[in-house]
Specification:
By secondary structure, the protein is an all-alpha fold. Helix content is about 85%, strand content about 0%.
Length: about 325
C-alpha cells in the first residue's frame, strides 16, 4: 500500500470537500480528556501561603449555605434533574458523534466512487441507517474491554508489579482495539454488514494485513501527538498567568489570572472546535482510505447516493 498516497489523498479530499469538517467536528464531540493544570495551581498556592485562598473559602461557604437551605426532598429532586440533563446531553453528544463518524466514512467513500459534490443533508440522511450498528459495536466492545480490565485489575491491584504489567498490556491492547473498531465501522458502512460480521471482517484485515494497519496506526499516532500538542499549546500559554499570579503575586492577583484565563479560553474554544474537527476529519479519512485500499473495494456502477443508502442488513 502506498502510505504517502493515502495520507495525501485524505488531505486532498477533506480540503476539496470542507463539508467533511462538519462531520469531523461532530465526531470530535465524543472525545474527552482531562487536565492536571488545576492541581498544579493548587500546589503552587499552597507552597506560598500554606492556606486556602480567601476567595475560595468564601465560595465554599456560599455553596455550603446554599445546600443547607435546601430540604432533603428538594435536594433529591435537583440531583435527579441534574442527572436527567446529563443523560440528555450525553445522548445528544453520542448521537452526533456517531453520525459524524459515519458521515466521514460515507463522504470519503462517495468521493472514491467518483462523487464530485457532497452535501451535509445527503451525508446525514445516508448515515442514520447505520447509527445503531456502529453505536452498538462501539458500546459493546468498549464495555466488554472495560469489564475485562476491571476483573483483571482487582487481583493485581494489591501488587505494584502486577498492576504495572496490566497497564503495559492494556495500553497496546487498547491501541489494537482502536484500529479494529475503526476498520469495523468502515466494514459496517462500506459493505453494509452487521455488528458481528463487521468485527469479523475487521479482525480478518488486522490479522492478514497487520503490517499496513500498524504503519497507518503509527503514522496517525505521530500526527495526532504533534497536532494535539499544537492544539494544547494555547492552553499551556493561558495557564501562565494563573501559575505566575499564584506563585508570586498572591491570591488577590489570582482572581485576575482566572478572569484572564476564562476570557481567553472562551475566545479560543471556537477555534479549537474547528481545528479539532479538521483533525478528526483527516484521521477518519485516512482510516476509510486504508480500509478501501486493503479490501480493494471496486467502484460501484450505482450512483454514490443509491449505493450509500442501500437497505441495511441484519443488525447483528
Amino acid at each position: 500500500m502506498d502510505y504517502g498516497n493515502v495520507l495525501s489523498r485524505a488531505w486532498k479530499i477533506i480540503w476539496q470537500h470542507k463539508v467533511l469538517w462538519i462531520f469531523g467536528i461532530l465526531a470530535g464531540l465524543g472525545n474527552t480528556g482531562s487536565s492536571g493544570g488545576s492541581a498544579a495551581n493548587g500546589s503552587n498556592i499552597s507552597y506560598q501561603t500554606n492556606e486556602v485562598p480567601r476567595y475560595m473559602e468564601d465560595f465554599a461557604y456560599r455553596v455550603q449555605d446554599f445546600f443547607n437551605q435546601i430540604q432533603q426532598g428538594e435536594l433529591i429532586g435537583l440531583l435527579c434533574l441534574f442527572l436527567l440533563v446529563v443523560l440528555v446531553i450525553s445522548a445528544i453528544l453520542i448521537f452526533l458523534s456517531t453520525v459524524g463518524k459515519i458521515g466521514l466514512i460515507q463522504g470519503v467513500w462517495k468521493v472514491e466512487q467518483g462523487a464530485t459534490r457532497l452535501t451535509f443533508g445527503e451525508l446525514f440522511r445516508a448515515s442514520t441507517p447505520y447509527f445503531w450498528r456502529v453505536f452498538g459495536m462501539y458500546f459493546l466492545v468498549v464495555l466488554i474491554f472495560a469489564l475485562v480490565i476491571i476483573v483483571l485489575a482487582v487481583p493485581l491491584a494489591f501488587t505494584i508489579i502486577g498492576l504495572i504489567c496490566l497497564i503495559c498490556l492494556a495500553i497496546p491492547a487498547a491501541w489494537l482495539l482502536m484500529a479494529v473498531l475503526e476498520l469495523a465501522a468502515n466494514a459496517i458502512v462500506v459493505e453494509n454488514l452487521g455488528i458481528t460480521a463487521g468485527l469479523k471482517r475487521s479482525w480478518q484485515l488486522v490479522r492478514t494485513k497487520f503490517g499496513p494497519v500498524l504503519v497507518i496506526w503509527l503514522l496517525l499516532l505521530v500526527i495526532g501527538l504533534v497536532a494535539g500538542f499544537i492544539l494544547a499549546l494555547p492552553f499551556i500559554l493561558l495557564m501562565l498567568p494563573l501559575i505566575f499570579s499564584g506563585a508570586f503575586l498572591g491570591s488577590d492577583f489570582m482572581t485576575s489570572g482566572w478572569v484572564i484565563f476564562l476570557v481567553c479560553l472562551c475566545a479560543y474554544l471556537p477555534f479549537l472546535l474547528i481545528l479539532n474537527g479538521i483533525l478528526q476529519s483527516y484521521v477518519g479519512s485516512v482510516w476509510t482510505l486504508t480500509y478501501l485500499r486493503l479490501t480493494g473495494q471496486p467502484k460501484s456502477d450505482a450512483t454514490p447516493t443509491e449505493f450509500a443508502i442501500e437497505a441495511p442488513t441484519e443488525i447483528m
